[in-house]
Structures are given as structure tokens and as C-alpha cells.
Amino acid sequence: MKRRYIYAIAAVTMLFSFSCTEKWDQHYEPGSKRVDSDIVEVVDMSAEEYIQTNSDLSSISTLFTEQDVYTKLETKDQLFTVLVYSNSVMSGAQIENAGFFANTCVSDLAFTPTKLVDGLSIKMWNGKYLEVSVEKTASTTEYFIAKSRISKIIQVDNGFVYVMSDAIYAPKSLYEFLTELGDEYSMFKDLVFEYEESAFDRENSIPVGVDNTGNTVYDSVFVSKNLLMDRYDSGGSESWNMRSEFFSSTVLVPNNTLVEGALDKAYQDVRDALNREPNANDSLKFEQFIIKSAFYSSMLTPEQLDGTEDLYSVSGYIEGESASTPGVQWRPTVQKVNTSNPVTLSNGVAYYTTALKIPNNVVVFRIKNRFYIWEYCNETEKEEYYKWEGLGDISIVDDGGFGPLGPWPFIPYKTVRAWPTDEAKANESVCSVELTGISLKEDGTVAVVMVPPGEYSFSMGFKSNKFPHTFQIYFNDELVNDNVNPNIHYDRTNNGFPEGYVPADWAAVSNRASYYDCDGGEIGIVTITGTELQPIKIKVASNDIAAIAASGNSKGRYQLYCWTLRPTENNY
Amino acid sequence: MDKVLNMRHNKIALTILFVLLVFGLSAQEITVKGKITAPDNQAVPSAVITISGVEGVVQTNEEGEFEVKVADTDGILTVSAQGFYDLSQPLLGRTDVRIVLVDMAKPKYNEDLVFPHTKLTKSAQTSAAKNIGAKDLDQVHTIENALQGEVSGLRVINKSGMPGEGSYLNIRGVRSLVGKNMPLILVNGIPYLPDTEESPIIGGYSRGIFNGLNVSDIQNITVLKGAEASIYGSMAANGVILIETNGVSASDKLETQISLTSQFGLSWNDQQIPLLNGDEYKSYLTDVGLTYYANMADLIGDFPFLVDDPDNYYNYLYNNKTDWQDEVYSPSVVSNNVLRVEGGDAVAKYDISLGYMNEGGVIDNTKRDRYHTQINTSINVNRKLELLASIGLAYMQADLQEQGLIEETNPVLVAYSKMPLLSPYRKDPNGSILAEYDIARYGVSNPVAITNTLAANTRQHNVNIRFGANYEVTPDLLLSGTIGLFYNYDQENIFIPGRSSNTIVAMNNGLAENTVRSGAGEVKNMYYNLNAKYKKVLDSGNLLNVYGGLQMLTTSKEFDGGAGYNTANDFYRTLNFVESGTTKFFGYINEWNWMNMYAHGDYTMNNLLRASVNVALDGTSSSGVDASRLGVFPSAGLTFMAKHLESLENSTFINKLDFRAEYGLTGNSRFSSNYGKNYYQSTPFLVLSGIVRSNIPNTNLKWETTKQLDLGVELSVLKNRVDLGVNYFNATSTDVLFAQPVSSVFGSPTYYDNSAEIANSGIEAELSASILKSKSFEWIVGGNISTLTNEVKSLGNVSKQIMDLPDGAEIVTQIGEDTYSFYGYKAEGIFASQAQATDANLKDWRGINYEAGDVRYEDVNNDGQIGEEDKQILGSATPDFFGGFYSYIRYKNLSISAEFTYSSGNEAYNATRRSIEALDNFNNQSRAAINRWQLDGQVTDIPKAVYGDPMNNNAFSSRWIEDASYLKLKYVTLAYEFDQTFLKFFRSGKIYVTGENLFTWTDYLGLDPEFAYSYEEAFQGVDYAKAVIPRSVKFGFNLNF
């Protein structure tokens, strides 16, 4: 009797214990995985065991054994993604370097296939990144790694094994491509790597001691930087560089002949246009254009490179600079690349350049001169270059100036002043002055400025003094603007700066740094036709100044300061 | 038990002596013979027999037989015997009497009842009630444990394993939505209304209401469920628990006696939530990381351990296999010791106990200490006037930890989230472990630093005082007066470090690098009672019992706290040093008063029928100013004692058969006194503080009314070896306070009115059966079961009200459903494949299609979109049935007993699991994450891991609602009792080993299905990561010197 009770109690107790364990285990313990899929398999073995026991993977398995891939897999306590190929794929594979090929097959993270997304890059053991792409339909999703389709997915105990439809040969990265360029591209390559330097990376270096002078000694990790081409965002984070696998880029590579030709042409343009010998600054500028114009922060297509739309190279902040550097202009109608033979890179594409020119708007940054050069002219020159109508009593007014800001020189605010003549006032006739573009040479003499043909933005500066009259401005006898307010205060317009001048860099020195040596107020766009360099004529007329002066208003006067021609983007 | 036995023994001896000296036995005409037996069929010798109308007494012989001459056979026969409860029954013409007595040692059985303003024997019971006597409180260590599973209709749920949290109590269902649902508790007849609010200082903590009372000072607990509760008028709708401390009235000893009660043991937790191990976590991290990081290098850059590279400089930080749960739990010592001295003389008697209790918690460095004393005395000033005093004092101190869904500081929750690869302690690059705690990494605090450096503590002072006087005007008329005080002072402090140590994640949106909170609360209840009792056996032999009186209660409750953060460093730990501008002050204050005139009368006819009537006229300060101030709460009961029918009186098969019907009105005015009047609360405006109107007052607000019908049967058969009680109740609460939604135009969120109605009904059954019984062997089993049906009948103008919990879960109170039901989406599985998801064409609320690996929620309105309209009721914490059962086996002096509690049909919201199975962050997850959806076509019930959970797979849904039914082995005890002098030192005693909470059978996926976030009804069944209730084994002894 008693025994029966004990049995009953024991049975009930066991029943309870089983039932509660079952629910708990069902939830918290790994269940046997059921996957309703033709291409997915779940096996209870390691990646090594799976590959070794699958006869259709014997070729890659042999390769893994030879290249110590299995040994490495076993020594690392982590999860992996292993790309494998069937024997048939392996038989047709073009394997140049077995070690490299084997190390392209394993990644240190276990990528769940459903987590693969377009654009994701998987780093393999050889350091190469393979890009993932996904093709989705309403009911199916296909995954590709480096354009090779995943044909079967096996979840193993230590990660995933992907059986790939085609062999993957890891492409070179852009940086590797550059470093491996041949001799015929040596000039371009040298230009690019001239800016590369190794920098000490304190964040990733480990303090290993203190030297005799008390300085901390690090295990010294160095990182490469390209001082010209590395780009950052305003917060200081990397936004582009040519070394990272995580930026998709295009590089346009000119050979030595093109580089030399482009430079020679540019130097000649300097001589012709600016009436001087090219200097080191010009060389630097032209070389930097060649480098900058070669790198783009996106994958450019042949259509883009053969098209008519201008392209702009990589932009962004250069380390240490206070303003973003814009991308340089690449005009596909002038510059040419061989779009029929692109080189696929792991992180972008490379094209070989076939025609390269340093654009006019790079050669000539701007042509700016001041009217007060008048005082350096002899009487003949004054007669020749300054033709006054209805204006007289010409003099120079010196209102001080602005600067210097560090190396940037003092800018005098001197104007040429002229008053309507009594006759003009009596007749209330049109007053004007026609000026020839001249510049002051270093020896104190003046010379006529010869301007290359092309389109320019034309600006002028006067003095702002609530002048009541208006100007009509002609350029090479053509009316550019018939209603110019003369109250443009010298050149302080915040419109254009001298080459290399960054106002933000000098803001701390002067709160007016953004007024320094600007172009003046824009009068209009002018075009110099023809094919040869030629002098320019600027006529400043006023049809109301005489009447204003006649009324006794002392502000009825001319005070001319500067003129500027800045090549437009179309002046390529 | 011994005390009671001794007392009765003395009484009998004195009575015999007195009677023999004064009277001689008189010869009568009719001879009445009889036999008195025990339940085990053994004869009871030396039992004293008295018969009303007959002078003198007789004793039974060795065979338990007696013989007495009587003039007639209409008298009442009374039997007293050592070791048995007294018994009275009418002779009803019998000349051959067969009586079976009830053994006083019978487990879980007590005939001495404490009723409002009076004490009764079970045979004089007038209302549905259950009693627990001191003998059944031997090995329990709290009053709540003593009640759990013992009383049908009473749910007692341990709130947590944090020391001193106590238990949630509820009798017969939720009856109020705004007012208190806690039963009215009286200690020594004095209403006991401690603060039951959640601590504003220590997260997730609400102090247990019985903390200041020591269970070994308790003589008697009566739970009143029936009409008799009406005496307490508008405080009684939730039932009444009467607790009587040891009083000198129970001790008629005139010699000094010393006893020692001690328990020592260990508490521990061996339950753990399975979490991902290092490799599994890495796999999970890769999955979720790839949905956050744009490239693999950034993922590895932030989590370098994903690549096993021993040469990595930081490798030493991540090469650990830490079981964080192991780190935060540790076994602790528990002990409870009470030394008692009692004695006195015929004029003054005393009973003094001194005690110290130490209760270690399961979480490392949590514990509670209590020093307490209970002094009871009575002084017979003269034959008519007796003065009574009892004073209970307790000082309590507790070291605690935060609980609830506080991700920064709840050590248990943090232990779940912390990645196993990290170390609790700092390490140097060589891997040597340093003394400091490791800093918080990856946004998760260091759980070990929390348990060791976060300082949360409380200090409480508790005072219970009763002074009383009884004046016996005539032998039938007693006047008494009582003054009582309950006072509690509670100081709570917490300091959360982190500013210097960086071990705990900054709180308050990352602003609070260290945090200080501090506060103090005070509760004061004053009670006054004047009472007159009249008891008379009328000439007809019928019994009249009447009493009435006036009682008054004033209560005040106040808590004031302050908080601030960022002291200069972790050395400065008080509010004085927090950063200026970070401080805020808060608190609550409530005064609540009650006055009550009461009367009770019962009349017993022919020992067959007892009618009782109660009426109370009372008023409280919580009524609105325009509402009627006084309410009348009548009740009536009728008991038919069929055993005393002539045909059954001599039956040894049927030993008791009572049928009871009761109907009564009770009220609930236990809600804030502020709701019925204008009041204001402070609110910050920029850097200034101001006051705003807090409510729209309802000046007609009145008490809630509960009408309850009780029908019951009590049966004892087979020589008192089988007791069965069945009770049916049906209670309808009307005028239930409800916060009606109001237009925001009024500028106030709440408007309370008496517009709701809630119905509760159920059947309660209690059974005790002595299966085997002989002198040396006994096996008793018993138990109780209660069903509960809770239904909202009306909510005034609305059909439902939804309450948002802090984590976005929703709880609805809706007509036709349980109060506080879980309300959310019903999950129907996971889309195994993209094809399946495409076929279903379900969209989320933004119009984005669900994809493979997402949870499929039921589209209730079939509009193809999952939105608010698709939410439904998912269950509630109200059980279908609950109770407890036990088995007691005794062989000679050795006994083994096991007690179980159970609950069935109650659902719980496992918010803890929701927070560790979210699969949407970089924290460690429960091991269920291993079954997450990863492969197209994979059939599983765990969705895919996606950072930030864009598709709301983690929404409040049936995924987190679980069946929290359980069966628990509450106690198993092996005991040895001796009643002979031992080592010439101990007179008697008991030695035992008891295991507590050792086994739980449940399908619940949390650590323990038994928990209560606080005393709030709405939070019952909400698992917010409270500390698990410990298992413990204790060795104990009760020794009498």
C-alpha cells in the first residue's frame, strides 16, 4: 500500500520535472535546425570536417591542406566564412599563386547569408576585400561575392561554408595598382607618391617604456598618408583616400608623354599669357592638377568619361586645412581616356588617359591690375593708356590699404580720381575714360597685359562713397553693363581671392580677412575671341555724372581702383 | 502548542480540585453512559465530563468510558481532556454518548479563533474564516510565509529575493482600480496601515509590510473572508487579516519560563538564465553588427575579439569566460533567534521576547538585519479591572540593490547583458588581474562593481503599541477600551558610483556619472476603541452574544526625498555634494482618517441554528465634501449545525456538519483623501518651482461598495480524521473609483468618479485527511483550492482603459475581461522565407513590408497592416485556481512534512526575457538567440537579429506573455520533538531541518514564476527582473528551559 503511494508520488514528480525541462530546453537550448530550402544545409560539424568529407570539394580541400588553411582554422578560436569551389570549378580555375588563392577563400567573420547586403566588402585572409552584391526578386534572393554566385550555403559549427559558382581571383586594389604601375607611368606615379609619407599613429601604438630623457617610447605603428590626396570631412573623419578598400574610386592614369606634354604646354601658356617665365609655384600648381584630376571618389563609367558633362575629382578637407578643397574640373571633351580598356580594381576602376591638358583656368588664375598704375606712367603712356572724355583734374588719392597678413603683402587703396570738366558739366555730356589693360613690372615700368582668348569673369573696384552716379562699362568696345553702381569699395567684395589665399586661415589675424585682395564687383562675363593673346580695353562711361557735378554735388567724380579677369570654367 | 496544553491541563486540574472540595456528586434519576475516543480510535482516559444542570464532574476510565446520573437529558455535555480540544454538545435525550475528540497536535488545525473585538472557539464561529495557530508557525520565518498556500481565497506572492520585500497579498480578487486592494490587517486589534508605495529612492524596491513583526511573536492569525468583516465598514471590502501577538492572556503560567527559538541556514540561488557563451555571442554580434556597421573593418575595429588574434595588444581584455550570473549571486547566511521570558503572578503577568534576525539575500552584498522586542503584560488591578499593554519595537537595517528594468544598475539585468568575454576586474597587459573593478565597456556596467560598490540601504524603526483596559461590570458584561499606535520611520539612501571608477554606465541619458538619492518616510496610525460586550446563556439554553462600540483611526503618511548627480568624485556620496542644478526634490503626503460605530449580535438556538448580524456606521476623510459622510454596512449570517440534529449527534462517522449562508455589505474608502478635494502639486518650470492644480476634484466621491454572498459547508467525518470545507462566494463591487479620461482642455489628467463595477466569484475548498493514524505513526495530507473569476462589469462611459508601462507594454482594463489584462499583438510565428513573407503581404504601420525572419503578427482587422487595431487581450495575472497542499508523516517523535503551493492559469509578462532576447543591440542575449532566424527557409520561433529592431519584432506581443502556472515545494521539513528533560537542561523542544523553495515545476521561462513587482495590482504578473526568490536550508530548534 505504502509502496504504491511512493511510486505514485515518484511518477508524478518525474512527470513534472520532465515537462518543465522540456519547455525550458526547447526555448533556451539549440534546437535541431529545420530549413526549408534547396540551397541551405545545416550540418553538425566544423567547416574543416565538412570540406574534407565532401567528395565534390576534394580539390579545394587538397589546396587548403597544402596551404595550411586547415591548420590556421583549427588554431583560431572563432567563427569563419569559407568560400569553396566544386571540383569542376577548380579544374577550370586559373590559379597563379596557390597561397594567395587559398587565402582568398577564408574570412575571419561568419557572414550569415541573409546579412549580406549590396556593397558590403568581406575581408579575406590575404587582406583582399571582396564585394557582395544581392539580387532580389519578389520571392527569391541571390547573393554574389565578387560577382561569383553563392550556389550552396552550409552552416557549420564554426561559421558558414559557401560553395561558389565561379572561382574568385581577388582583384588588386587601387593602391596596389598604383604602386605596380610600369616605367611609362613613372612621372605620374612619382608625382602621386611624392606626397605620401608615413605618420606615427599614437592611438594604435603601444607604450613600451620610457627613454632616458623621460619620453614615452612606443612600439611605433606608422600609417601611410597622402598629404595632397587624403580627404576628411569637416569633423576630421576620413572621407576618402586611395588606400582604403572601403571607398569606391576611379583613377585616370596618364603616361609620361602626356604628363610632359601637358606641363610643357602650360609653361608656354604662362610665358605667353602672363608675360613671365614659369616659376616653382606654377610647376607645383600644374603638377598638383595632374594628380588631383586623376582621382575620383566614385566609379566613373565609360559613358561619363566619354560624355560632355564636366566631372570633378575628389573633394573634401585636406588634413590641417581650414577649408574644403574643391575637386578639379575634368572636361571630357578636352581630356580623353581609353574607356574601352578599364582595369577592374577591388575598390574601383582605373582608366588610362589618352589626352591631357592643364586647363587655361588653371594656368591663369586671374589677371588683376590697379588703375593707380597711372602714376607710374610717363606722359606718353598716360595719353596712350588713359583716354579721358569730359573728365579732368586727374590725381591719385591714397586711402591707406589693407594688410599685410603674414606673407600676403600690403594692398594699397589708391584710386585714380577725375572730375567732370566745366564743359561737360555745362553740357551735361557723357564722361568716360578708356583704359588699356596695363601692369606694373618689377622695374617700375608699365607693360600692356596680353590676355589669352577665352571666357572671363570681369570685375572692377572703385571706392564706395555713396556716389550718386552710374557707370556704363565697355570691354573691348562692347557694352558689358550699362548700370553699374560705382560704390564698390575697392576690391573688398568677398568675390575671389589671390591664388592660394584662404580667408579662414587668416580670420584670427584680421576679422576682415575675407576682404583681402578680392576681385572687385563682378561687371559681367566677357569673351576674348580669336586665337592669339591680345591687349584689352576697358571703357568706364557715365551719362549722369556731369549733371550731378553741375548741380554742385561734390560726389560727382570718378575714383577708379582695379580691374580683374578671372577665367571661367568654360575657359578650359 | 505546549503552552496551550499546559494551560488546559492546569485548568482541568484546578476545576476537578475545586469541584471535589466544594461539592459531592449528587445522585440523579437517569444514567448517561458514554465513551470518549481519539481519532485513532484509542480510548481517552481521564477526560473530564460536565453536563449543564448537573453539579460536579466525572472522569473517564482507562477505557475512555464514563457514567453519570442526570435528572433529564436536555443538558449540554462538555468534554475536556489533556491534548484535545474541548467539545460541547447537547445530550438531546441520549443516554449512550459516543464522542470523538480532536487532537490538539493535529497539523494545520486550530479551534481558537480571533474575531473582531472578540475571541471564539471554532464551534462558536459566526462567519467564513480561516485560522492559523502558533504551532503551525514553527519553521516559517515571515508572516507571509505562514499564510502562503494555507488559506483558500488568499493569494500570497513573494515579491522577490531582495531581503525585506515581503509579499503581495490579495483575498478573493481585485476589487478596486484606484483604492487599495490589500486586505485590512489588524495587529492586536489595531489597524495596521503601513506605507505600501514603491520606493522612490531604490529602484524596484517596496518594503514588506510585515518587516517589523517577528513570526515567533505571533500567536494567532485569522483571515476573515465572510460577512463578519462588515464590522470594519469601509475598510473591509478586501477581507481582513487579524494578527494576534503572543499575549499574556494565552499564558496562565505563574512560573518563569524561558525559551529559545533559533534558525540558522544558508540561502542561495542556483537558477540561471541560459545566456550565449563566448563563441555564440560572437556569432550573434557578427549578425547584428553587420546590420549596423557599413563595413567589416569598422565592426572588427570596435569589437577586435571577433578575430582570435593572440598578438593583438588588447587581447588580454577579451580572453575571459566570465559567468556574470555566477558573479552577482552568492550564498548567504540567514538566522533568526528569539529569546522569550514569560511568567508573573496572580496580579501581573508578562511575556517578553528579544530577537535578532539576519536575512542574507541571493544577490551578493544584500542583507537585512532586524533587532526586535515584544513586551506583553497584563495587570489585574482588582477582580474587575484588567490593564493590558503590548509593545513591539523593531529596528531594521538593509543593504540592497536596485531591481526592475534599470539597465545601468540592476545587477541581474546587467549580468545578463554583459558580454562573457570581459573580466570583472581590471587586468594588465600580461593578463594579471588587478584589484580594481573593470570599467563599463560597450555601454554595459560592470555587474560585480555594482554589487560591491553601489550602496543602497534602508533603516527602519517600527513601533507597535497597544494599551487596553477591561472592566467586568457583571459576569456577562465587559467594557473595554483600547489605544493603539503604529509608527514607522524609514530612511532610504542610494549612491551609484561611476564618476571616478567608470564602472557603472552614466544614468539620466548619460548625464549622471554618479547619482545620489536619499529620502525619509514616516507613517503614523493612531487608534482608539471603546467596546461593550454582553454574553448570556438564556434560560431557554440559547446563547446570546452582543457587542458594540466606537472606534477611530487617524493616519498620516509622508515621504520626502531628493536626488541629484555628479558629485566631484565617488568619494562624496551625499546630496550636499551633487552638481548644482541637478537636484530635484519629491515626495508625497497623505492624511486619512476613519471613524466607525459597530455592533454585532449572534443568537444560537437549540445548538442547531446560529444567526448573526453585524452593522457598522462609518465615515472617512476620503469622501468628497459634498458626498454623504456616513455609510451603513450591514451583514447577516445563518449557520445550521446539522451535527446537533438528534439523528447525527451520536454518529462517530459525522463529527461536524455546518451549513453557512452569509450576505453582507462592505466598503472600500482606502484611497487618497485628496481625490475629493482640490489639491496642488509642485512642478518645475525652467529653474523655478511652482505649483499646479493636480486634479479635477470630485466632491461627490464616496466609498466603493462590495456586496458579497457566501455559501459554505464544513464537514468532519471518520472520527474527525477527514475535514472538508467548501465555500462559494460571489462579490460585486460597485461605485468603484475609476479615473475617467478627461479632455486635455481641463489641464489635468485625472478625474475620479464612482463609475466602475467589478465582479469576483469563486469556489474555495479545503481538505485535510488523516490517512493513517496510530499512536506512533501518522500520515496526514491536506490542501486547499480556490478558483477565481474576475470580471470588469462597467467602466462608466468607456469600455476600456489602457495603461502604458515604462517599457511600452500595455495593460488594459476592459469590460467583460479580467482587470489589468495584457494588451498587445499576437505573434503567429516567424516568416521562414522571403516567399512566405511576400505571400502574406503584411506591412507594418509605416507601410513597410515584413520580410523573411520577421515576426508575423495576427492581422485582426485584415487590413494588411499591423497597427493599433490589431492589438488584443493576451491574458492576465489572475489565476484560474490556486492554493496549497501538504503531506505530514510522523513516526513517534520524528516527522517529515512537505508543503506545496500552486497557481494555475495565470499569465505573466516576461519583460526580463524581452530585454535579453531583443536581438537588436550589441549586449549579450539569452541562449534562445542561438535559434534566431538566419537562413532563408529556416523554421524557428526566434526572429532575425537586426540592430535597432526596425520592424518591431520586439514589440509587446504574445511572444512575451507566458503561462506562469507553477507548483512549488514551499517547505520540506524533518523534525524531532521531545517533551522530556534532556541533558538536565531542556524541558522540551523541537529540532528540525527545513528546506525552503527547493523545487518548482513550471513552464515559465524566467527564473521563478513567483514574483510581484510591487504591491500595485496593475504590476502583478509583470516580470521586471526582480531578484529571484532564494532556495534555503535551515537548521532550527525551539527549546524550552
Number of strands of chain A: 37
Q: Report the average pLDDT across residues of chain A.
A: 89
Which bin fits the share of residues in helices of chain B? under 10%
What's the average pLDDT of chain B?
A: 90
Name the overall outline of chain B.
globular
Poorly predicted sequence stretches spanning 5 or more consecutive residues of chain B: 1-8, 16-27
Measured distance between first and last alpha carbons of chain B? 15 Å
> Biggest β-sheet of chain B, characterized?
22 strands, antiparallel, barrel
- Please state the oligomeric state of the protein chains shown: heterodimer
CATH architecture of the largest domain in chain B: Beta Barrel
Q: Level of helix content of chain A?
A: 10-25%
CATH homologous superfamily classification of the largest domain in chain B:
TonB-dependent receptor, beta-barrel domain
How many helix segments of chain B? 11
Alpha-beta content class of chain B: mainly beta
Overview of this protein structure:
The complex is a heterodimer of chains A (572) and B (1041). Chain A has 572 residues and is an alpha+beta fold. Chain A has three domains: 40-164, FAS1 domain (Roll), CATH 2.30.180.10; 175-363, no CATH class; 367-499 and 509-567. In chain A, the strands form eleven sheets. In chain A, strands 2, 3, 4, 5, 6, 7, 8 and 9 form an eight-stranded mixed β-sheet that branches. In chain A, strands 25-28-35-32-33 form a five-stranded antiparallel β-sheet. Chain A has a four-stranded mixed β-sheet with strand order 17-16-23-22. In chain A, strand 32 and strand 33 (478-484) form a beta hairpin. In chain A, helix 9 packs across helix 10. Chain A is elongated. The termini of chain A are far apart. The mean pLDDT of chain A is 89. With 1041 residues, chain B is mainly beta. Chain B folds into two domains: 2-103, Sandwich (Immunoglobulin-like); 184-270 and 331-503 and 516-680 and 687-816 and 878-914 and 961-1040, Maltoporin, Chain A. Chain B contains eleven helices and 52 strands. In chain B, the strands form eleven sheets. Chain B has a 22-stranded antiparallel barrel. A five-stranded mixed β-sheet of chain B has the order 10-15-16-13-14. In chain B, helix 7 (411-417) runs antiparallel to helix 8. Chain B is globular, with a radius of gyration of 32 Å. The model of chain B is unreliable at 1-8 and 16-27 (pLDDT under 50).
